[in-house]
Design the sequence.
């Protein structure tokens, strides 16, 4: 038997002693029961020959199984046999006793079955049993840790000694390098010219993309940040979120590209390191090459980015009905921001490859690049089960309409893809090993048999890029491409939300311009939170959240009148009591919304009236009661003023609406004169001492249709409302007292155009990113494929078979990622269409445009794959 170390010897003696102690404790430790003193052995004998099992001895019986196992372990230790599952018996005993006592505590046992004396007597044995087992566990654990630490220290000292000897040998280079050395360096550099060109091209693309992202972000920030949410939140938020995603993708891409570049450079520098070149020289040479390439890429990339940003600016100006002038993008500030951000990006990509960079001056193993990697063999079913669970969780979460189109959910999807790709590939390889075709297909699959981790990593990155394109951005692009009749979404030339005292003057203005007026009774309803941005609570208690969502409540009769005015068929809602029906007023290109975005988004908290500046968040349900949403639809009955975020219609039963309408109109009428005398600050502070606002919002939708030539004049006459209802903008400047159809049409068409362009730009960038990664993967395997092709050719394999093998290996890195992207894309696109409340006809149009995007995407990748096949075949055929 193998000789034990001093630590293992101590552990052996500890286990031997504790085994004896535990058995003796169970059998002979005195137990004081109500009938007198006894012991475990006597209790067992009594139950066997006389009384049978008694529930009052259950605590003692819990120790019986561990005691038996300790006896078996004692015998094995004496005979120097392997302990097997009894190796960690003390830890298992502690778990067993803990779980057992918990189970006993919850069993429906009558108190009459025990006496305090019995419990106290048996608890002594139980506690001593636990105590001795715990002593063994802690002592053995301590000895094992000390042994591991000592081994690590010895190994570290040995490694440090070897490294010190290597550094002394490698750094010893007296004198100067001969001029032939510099000739060798130049020839090495020229031999890597293709690698340099590819690296500079990827860097230039990153620089150009960053310039475009920051310039477009600047345009939207300067132009739309302070305007209404239809253009501000939509366009500014769109380019901000897309910009963050692009920057993250570029960071990942350049980190991978830098790792590949260092690997290629290492092949040349390894021989020089072996010959004794100074490490400082290696690092300086690499950094000079790297940063020189970065600066060259910055010049070309920023120039290309400036041209691309100018072209996008011109297209954006053309795409806005009526024309618009955006700020210039080719400015010194944008060049400086682009250059700094690009240098930071490249610095981070190099920092994330710190180990590879350090290894550049230490690598002396010429077979390092061909070392076989360990492949996944254990726990494959757990990997696949975990991937399926995360995928199901992501789909289930996304299918909840209130959370649909939340991009952070796709973190789960990406993790699921990694687990399924790794686990699925490992399972496939295991199945192939057990079949006859394993031998015939070995040449096609040797990539994964030899370099499992590296190939799964590259396959996963390509799959993520495909999923981002086809699963995240293709659906919004398809939604923005669906044809829409934007003017028909605005049935009224001017829509005013008016207070009762304002109606007389509004009617006078309408008479002045001979407007056709339609009035609808309305109320303000406000949700507790009205933004889809998830804001963390900075305190442990619920804060007052801003903005609060302001909606328009109408009666079911008014809802039917609006549908009739639009030329739509009546729709029976069948509302009862206090049930609500929500009409989201948004176009087809806008993401799914909910009426209340608070916390879990499943409960809908709304109050009658306007937002509350102050209220007690601990009692928020009293101020914002939970409402029952009986139905939802997407339509534009008064106009899409905030694209489904605010000013949606909430339909109530006639009786429920009338009850609250009478209450609020009376309340507004009572306090109107006081409101007129208040200051803005007094208005804001009113809810500090009162549970409601002084007035609770407009009560009439005053809708006007008039001749096109008179709309601007009428709108100018309505400007007084901005001052009259100034208090109502305290909470949100986006909520306006009136909306003009012509301006709303321009805003909506602009946002649809920008959404289409923004998502199209993202798809283009993802396509280029994917092609770069695919090209890098193929180029990294090019020399290996060339050697394999020469070898198989000399063995007599036909050209057709060699071509088929090469096509299979190249196609795998296109087919699997594209199929992953399409599978995820179809699932999430279907959920997106459902969440956006598309009709059947709209869903079919959405599916048609999505299919066109997928078809174009597949054709482009098929062409890329075919071109790569031709290019690689020409190279591998050279001997």
Sequence:
């Amino acid at each position: 038997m193998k000789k034990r170390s001093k630590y293992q010897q101590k552990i052996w003696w500890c286990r031997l002693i504790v085994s004896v102690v535990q058995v003796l404790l169970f059998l002979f430790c005195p137990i004081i029961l109500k009938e007198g003193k006894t012991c475990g052995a006597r209790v067992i004998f009594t139950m066997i020959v006389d009384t049978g099992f008694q529930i009052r001895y259950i605590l003692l019986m819990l120790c019986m199984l561990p005691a038996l196992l300790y006896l078996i372990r004692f015998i094995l230790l004496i005979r120097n046999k392997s302990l097997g599952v009894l190796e960690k018996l003390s830890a298992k005993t502690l778990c067993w006793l803990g779980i057992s006592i918990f189970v006993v505590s919850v069993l429906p046992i009558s108190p009459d079955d025990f006496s305090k004396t019995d419990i106290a007597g048996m608890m002594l044995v139980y506690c001593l049993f636990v105590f001795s087992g715990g002593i063994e566990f802690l002592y053995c654990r301590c000895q094992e840790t000390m042994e591991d630490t000592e081994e690590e220290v010895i190994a570290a000292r040995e490694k440090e000694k070897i490294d010190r000897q290597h550094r002394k040998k490698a750094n010893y280079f007296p004198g100067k390098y001969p001029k032939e050395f510099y000739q060798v360096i130049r020839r090495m550099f020229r031999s890597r010219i293709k690698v340099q060109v590819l690296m500079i091209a990827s860097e230039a693309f990153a620089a150009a993309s960053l310039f475009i992202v920051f310039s477009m972000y600047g345009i939207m920030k300067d132009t739309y940040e302070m305007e209404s949410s239809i253009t501000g939140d939509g366009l500014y938020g769109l380019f901000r979120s897309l910009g963050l995603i692009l920057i993250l993708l570029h960071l990942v891409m350049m980190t991978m590209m830098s790792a590949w570049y260092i690997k290629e450079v290492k092949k040349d520098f390894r021989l020089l390191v072996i010959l004794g070149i100074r490490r400082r020289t290696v690092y300086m040479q690499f950094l000079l090459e790297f940063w020189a390439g970065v600066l060259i890429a910055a010049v070309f990339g920023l120039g290309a980015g400036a041209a691309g940003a100018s072209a996008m600016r011109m297209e954006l100006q053309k795409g806005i009905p009526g024309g618009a002038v955006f700020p210039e993008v080719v400015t010194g500030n944008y060049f400086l921001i682009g250059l700094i951000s690009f240098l930071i990006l490249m610095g981070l990509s190099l920092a994330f490859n710190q180990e590879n960079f350090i290894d550049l001056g230490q690598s002396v193993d010429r077979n390092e690049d061909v070392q076989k990697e360990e492949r996944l063999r254990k726990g494959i079913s757990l990997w696949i089960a975990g991937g399926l669970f995360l995928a199901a969780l992501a789909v289930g979460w996304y299918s909840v309409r209130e959370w649909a189109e939340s991009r952070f959910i796709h973190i789960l999807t990406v993790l699921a893809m990694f687990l399924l790709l790794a686990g699925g590939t490992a399972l496939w390889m295991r199945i192939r090993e057990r079949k006859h075709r394993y031998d015939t297909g070995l040449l096609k699959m040797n990539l994964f048999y030899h370099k499992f981790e590296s190939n799964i990593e590259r396959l996963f990155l390509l799959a993520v890029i495909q999923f981002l394109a086809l699963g995240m951005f293709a659906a919004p692009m398809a939604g923005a491409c669906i044809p829409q009749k934007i003017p028909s979404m605005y049935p009224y030339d001017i829509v005013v939300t008016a207070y009762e005292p304002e109606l007389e003057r509004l009617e006078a203005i309408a008479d002045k311009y001979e407007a056709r007026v339609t009035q609808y009774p309305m109320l303000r309803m406000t949700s507790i939170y009205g933004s889809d941005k998830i804001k963390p609570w900075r305190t442990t208690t619920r804060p007052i959240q801003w903005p609060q969502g302001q909606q328009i409540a109408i009666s079911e009769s008014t809802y039917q009148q609006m549908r009739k005015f639009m030329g739509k068929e009546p729709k029976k809602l069948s509302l009862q009591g206090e049930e609500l029906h929500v009409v989201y007023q948004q176009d087809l290109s806008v993401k799914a919304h909910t009426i209340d975005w608070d916390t879990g988004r499943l409960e809908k908290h709304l109050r009658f009236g306007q937002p509350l500046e102050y209220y007690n968040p601990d009692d928020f349900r009293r101020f914002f009661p939970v409402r029952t949403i009986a139905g939802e639809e997407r339509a534009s009955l008064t106009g899409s003023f905030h694209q489904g975020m605010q000013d949606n219609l909430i339909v109530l039963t006639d009786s429920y609406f009338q009850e609250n309408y009478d209450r609020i109109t009376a309340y507004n009428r009572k306090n109107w004169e006081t409101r007129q005398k208040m200051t803005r600050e007094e208005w804001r502070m009113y809810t500090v001492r009162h549970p409601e606002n002084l007035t609770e919002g407009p009560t009439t939708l005053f809708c006007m249709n008039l001749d096109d030539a008179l709309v601007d004049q009428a709108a100018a006459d309505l400007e007084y409302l901005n001052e009259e209802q100034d208090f109502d903008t305290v909470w949100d400047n986006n909520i306006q007292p009136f909306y003009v159809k012509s301006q709303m049409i321009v805003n909506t068409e602009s946002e649809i155009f920008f959404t289409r362009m923004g998502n199209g730009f993202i798809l283009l960038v993802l396509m280029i990113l994917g092609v770069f990664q695919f090209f890098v993967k193929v180029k990294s395997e090019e020399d290996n494929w060339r050697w394999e092709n020469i070898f198989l050719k000399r063995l007599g394999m036909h050209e057709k078979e060699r071509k088929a093998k090469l096509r299979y290996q190249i196609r795998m890195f296109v087919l699997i990622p594209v199929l992953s992207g399409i599978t995820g894309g179809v699932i999430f696109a279907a959920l997106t269409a459902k969440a956006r409340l598309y009709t059947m006809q709209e869903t079919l149009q959405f599916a048609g445009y999505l299919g066109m995007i997928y078809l174009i995407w597949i054709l482009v990748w098929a062409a890329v794959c075919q071109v790569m096949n031709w290019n690689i075949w020409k190279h591998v055929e050279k001997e």
Notes: The chain has a mean pLDDT of 79.
